[in-house]
């Protein structure tokens, strides 16, 4: 199977999985106890008012009609997820406003993890049974064992409250508008570096908190992969030829170790996009996690449904991209 056919096959499978996610989420909406009308209508609403509300939001139509309309509405370029029952605003606008914030936090956490874990894993593997190896292994154990919410609170108390180095939470804002990286870069290029510094100060603690477990996981994975590669015959042959040790470690051993690491990076990135609920809550980060919790507390199933669909679709897309990178690094998987 060629590379193009492999990508087409993975993309087709991804579409089927996304359709399955939409179907499951839509079904859960109707098997969950309670009717949306109950949450919209006043406590003393009459039966006539309840029927009028159900008719207004299309809740009185057959289930298969609502399902078809919902699926068709999700198709590009419209991507209509319905209207919020309480506020009457578009669910799509709320979800897609929160998505870049969660994505930015997830990518920042991934970069923190990669920048720390791969060098630590290489150092640990090349200094086996030495103090540096034990230090890196201990760090991995502590990182995996530390709950994110506790780490976030401790970092806030120490670095934000005690020493006042970082803000306690929230996104950086300019004129009340949340500041994304692209906005910060634009201000930097226009001669306002203080805005970029403000963005960095706000994202550092959430990214470190979210990326710590990830760092520990990839460190252990890099170490085990490097140890396996360094014990193979081609490494012995390279050393016998007089190849510099730096090239042996980084150009050959680490390169062959990256294939499983890329897979884990992709899986974790997909998880971080929708799984940063606790971190976003601790740092008052207005992303998908916070929107999800607010929707649950307010029993806004339409918003909850939109969040779950976007998280599921994002996970599928990330994994499809990972499969493409994996096949590029290791063409044997396309055979």
From TrEMBL:
Gene3D superfamilies: MetI-like
This protein's UniProt keywords: Cell membrane, Membrane, Transmembrane, Transmembrane helix, Transport
Pfam family, one: BPD_transp_1
Record bears the keyword Membrane: yes
Biological process (GO), any one: transmembrane transport
Record's subcellular location: Cell membrane
Domain called ABC transmembrane type-1: residue spans: 99-326
Domain of life: Archaea
Transmembrane annotation, as ranges: 12-31, 105-126, 138-161, 199-218, 258-278, 298-322
Membrane protein topology class: Multi-pass membrane protein
GO cellular component, one term: plasma membrane
Database matches in SUPFAM superfamilies: MetI-like (SSF161098)
Subcellular location, principal: membrane
Family: Belongs to the binding-protein-dependent transport system permease family.
Protein name: ABC-type transport system permease protein (Probable substrate dipeptide/oligopeptide)
Organism: Haloquadratum walsbyi (strain DSM 16790 / HBSQ001)
Gene, per the UniProt record: dppB1
């Amino acid at each position: 199977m060629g590379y193009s056919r492999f990508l087409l096959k993975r993309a087709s499978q991804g579409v089927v999985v996304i359709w399955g996610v939409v179907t499951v989420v839509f079904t859960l909406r109707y098997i969950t106890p309670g009717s949306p009308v109950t949450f919209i209508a006043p406590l003393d609403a009459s039966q006539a008012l309840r029927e009028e509300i159900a008719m207004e939001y299309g809740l009185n139509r057959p289930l298969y009609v609502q399902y078809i309309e919902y699926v068709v509405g999700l198709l590009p370029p419209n991507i209509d997820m319905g209207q919020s029952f309480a506020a009457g605003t578009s669910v799509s606008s709320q979800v897609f406003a929160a998505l870049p914030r969660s994505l930015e936090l997830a990518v920042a956490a991934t970069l923190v993890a990669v920048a720390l874990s791969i060098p630590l894993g290489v150092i640990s593997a090349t200094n086996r049974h030495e103090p540096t190896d034990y230090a890196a292994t201990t760090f991995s154990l502590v990182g995996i064992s530390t709950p994110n919410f506790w780490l976030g609170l401790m970092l806030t108390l120490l670095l934000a409250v005690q020493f006042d180095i970082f803000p306690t939470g929230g996104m950086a804002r300019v004129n009340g508008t949340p500041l994304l990286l692209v906005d910060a870069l634009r201000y930097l290029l226009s001669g306002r570096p203080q805005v970029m510094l403000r963005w960095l100060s706000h994202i550092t603690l959430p990214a470190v908190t979210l990326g710590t477990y990830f760092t520990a996981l990839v460190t252990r994975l890099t170490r085990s992969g490097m140890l396996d590669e360094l014990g193979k015959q081609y490494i012995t042959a390279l050393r016998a030829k007089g190849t510099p040790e730096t090239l042996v470690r980084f150009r050959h051993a680490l390169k062959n170790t990256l294939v499983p690491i890329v897979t884990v990076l992709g899986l974790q990135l997909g998880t971080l996009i929708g799984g940063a609920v606790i971190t976003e809550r601790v740092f008052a980060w207005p992303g998908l996690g916070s929107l999800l919790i607010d929707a649950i507390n307010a029993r806004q199933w339409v918003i909850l449904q939109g969040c779950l669909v976007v998280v599921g679709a994002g996970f599928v897309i990330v994994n499809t991209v990972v499969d493409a990178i994996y096949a590029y690094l290791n063409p044997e998987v396309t055979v």
